[in-house]
Amino acid sequence: MTQSDVTLDLDNLLVIREDNKEGGVVTLTLNQPKQFNTLSVEVLSAIQTELDQIAQDDKIRVVVIQATGKAFCAGHNLKQMRAHSEEAFHRTLFQQCSKMMLTINHMPQVVIAKVQGIATAAGCQLVAACDLAVAADNAKFATSGINVGLFCSTPAVAVSRNLPRKQAFEMLITGEFIDAHTALHYGLINRVASVEQLDQALQSLISAITAKSSIAVRTGKDMFYKQLSMNVEDAYNYASKVMTCNMMADDVREGIDAFIDKRQAVWKEC
Q: What is the β-pairing status of strands 25-30 and 15-20?
């Protein structure tokens, strides 16, 4: 296969997967720049397939979701949606999207959104659904369905679990854009960097995660999302059980011994 063949193949992929096996990082790139990386049925299926495969691989520690072009993701493909008037199509579409977002929460790997452009509607939902997010300082975010008469109900689920109530509702009810620094202030994203420094900011976050015990990270992510839906008493009971089980891991004994000995821990679970 020639170099031009490889380029052509990549150009035709809806989602490009790149594996850094030594670093334990997989990058998924939304690759429909002319369509502003909208979440069509086909793109959702492609992302879901990759996430399902990644979730089964214990060697993968971190997943990065990024995009090509000027937009990170402009939400659902409105042309595709208008081409189908039947209720069953839209019900299936939103369920498919919700399943993909939930997969991000349920998979053991930490998922980071790297936002280089606008993220609107379900694209903003995708950022909110990821465990962490870094964004270029020129990125913008909106839940803009309200502008076409469609309240962003499914994006509201993820956005309202990231932002304070009034800020979330303002985004959802006005459809107005917020900039990257406002998104950072609201809690939608974790870090903002210049376009030139975005990769460095992402790598700093990845390095901080991969330096930790993988069993602690997997345990922590699972526990974090499960306790969110519990009342405080149940959450503490559940957390106590999880922490007790976590204490039995070899990595915990190694980590505590290393702390006491003032040395670097050598994780067995990496």
A: antiparallel
Cα 114 versus chain centre, distance: 9
Which CATH superfamily, name and number, covers 3-210?
2-enoyl-CoA Hydratase; Chain A, domain 1 (3.90.226.10)
Q: Write out pLDDT tens, residues 37-80.
A: 999 999 999 999 999 999 999 999 999 999 999 999 999 999 99
pTM above 0.85, yes or no: yes
Do 55 and 99 form a contact (C-beta atoms < 8 A)?
Answer: no
Contacts of 61 (CB under 8 A, 6+ apart): 23, 24, 25, 109, 110, 209, 210, 214, 217
pLDDT tens for each residue of 105-134: 999 999 999 999 999 999 999 999 999 999
| Residues with Cβ within 8 Å of residue 133, at least 6 apart in sequence | 112, 113, 114, 115, 127, 188, 189, 190, 191
